Amino acid sequence: MPPATTDSTRERIIDAAEECFGRFGVAKTTVEDIAAAAGLSRATVYRSITGGRDELILAVVLRDLGRFLDALSERLRHEKSVPDAIVEGTMDAVAFVRGQPTVAQFLVPEAAGHMQAVVAAAAEHVLNLCCDYVRPYFDLAQRERRLRPDIEVEGTVEFLFRIITSLIVMDRDRPGESTRHFLRTYVVPVIVGA
Fold first, then answer.
1. One-letter-per-residue 3-state SS of 8-37
2. pLDDT tens, position by position, 106-163
3. How far apart are CA 144 and CA 149, in angstroms?
4. Model pTM?
């Protein structure tokens, strides 16, 4: 029986996948490319990542998302104003995705099939992960009556997730202040109330 692979081997493979996705694009990256970049055999990659390329795509997205959510939850701990947290958190999320070549690769048309097959299948997992990170902030804001009393945290996070996605996919090339004004005018009242 072959030896089990270690967490460090798995991380090495995910690092290599992220590098290859950024260099070749998601659709054109093969497991062979990833194995070569990691300096490992294909067999070792398949032993470590039993779901193959699809699992690697999701692993890269989730790892990058986790890093962003760590920074976002830290920001929310220090943010006193719910409207500012909504606006600036949304702006940060959009900037994060646009600034991360690997994550941005998933939004190009050639990767659409891979996104739908991999990430859409795990959408509940991604949404639950986002909820876990921001739930404490929104729960506290709701207890302090700084949110509409009739909204749920999960619904709020899903709504913001959809807004962020639309701002990324449908880039209107607005200046930052114009986007902030849009968010304050149309998004914040939905969550905070009039």
1. HHHHHHHHHHHHHHHHHCCCCCCHHHHHHH
2. 555 555 555 556 656 566 677 788 888 888 888 888 889 898 988 888 888 889 988 9
3. 10
4. 0.73
Tens of pLDDT, residues 24-41? 887 788 999 999 999 999
Per-residue b or e along 121-144, where b marks 16 or more CB atoms closer than 10 Å to that residue's CB: ebeeebeeebbebbbebbeebbee
Inter-residue contact 133 to 154 (CB < 8 Å):
no
Positive or negative torsion for Cα 49, 51, 24, 107: negative
Cα separation, 165 vs 15, whole angstroms: 25
d(CA 191, CA 134): 14
State the residue for tokens 């659409």: 112
